[in-house]
Amino acid sequence: MPSFGTVVWFLCGVLLFRYIWKIGLSMLRSMATAPPPPPPTGEMRRINVRYRCSVCGTELRMVMAPDEDPPPPRHCMEDMEFMTPRFE
Ligand SMILES: [Zn+2]
Predict the structure, then answer these.
(1) Cα of 34 to ligand 1 centre, how many Å?
(2) What digits encode the pLDDT tens for the residues 35-69?
(3) pLDDT (0 to 100) of residue 86
(4) How far does residue 56's CA lie from ligand 1's centre (Å)?
(5) How far is ligand 1, taken at its centre, from the CA of residue 23, in Å?
(6) How far is 75 from 53, CA to CA, in rounded Å?
(7) In this predicted structure, what is the pLDDT of residue 85?
(8) Distance 76 CA to ligand 1 centre (A)
(9) Distance 59 CA to ligand 1 centre (A)
């Protein structure tokens, strides 16, 4: 026979779990609806541009984009710097 204190703690745990579960679900739902649907692959353009993170120095190359002048990706919470395309 569990004591009264144990039952109270158990109920508190169940309520807390349900609360966190609901927050998690709503966060998942907002993340799932945030990005726009990707365009069909036939409308993607082959590009070759480089971006550099001005904060940590990470460089990346973008090879596919919905248009030829895509907005720069973000890294370290900042827009990455556009670098001149280099064709190798
Ligand atoms: Zn960075």
Answers:
(1) 23
(2) 666 666 677 888 888 999 999 999 999 998 888 78
(3) 54
(4) 4
(5) 29
(6) 6
(7) 59
(8) 4
(9) 9
60's CB contacts (< 8 A; 6+ apart) are 50, 51, 73, 80
> CA 19, CA 64: separation in Å to the nearest integer?
41
Token pair for residue 65?
A: 């984009």
DSSP line for 3-63: -HHHHHHHHHHHHHHHHHHHHHHHHHHHHHHSSPPPPPGGG-EEEEEEEE-TTT--EEEEE
Task: Please list, in sequence order, all residues whose beta carbon lies within 8 angstroms of the beta carbon of residue 70, skipping any fewer than 6 positions away.
Answer: 47, 62
Q: What pTM was computed for the model?
A: 0.47
| 10-17: average pLDDT | 94
pLDDT digits (tens, 9 = 90+) for 17-40: 999 999 999 888 887 776 666 666
Q: Ligand 1 centroid vs 57 CA: distance in angstroms?
A: 6
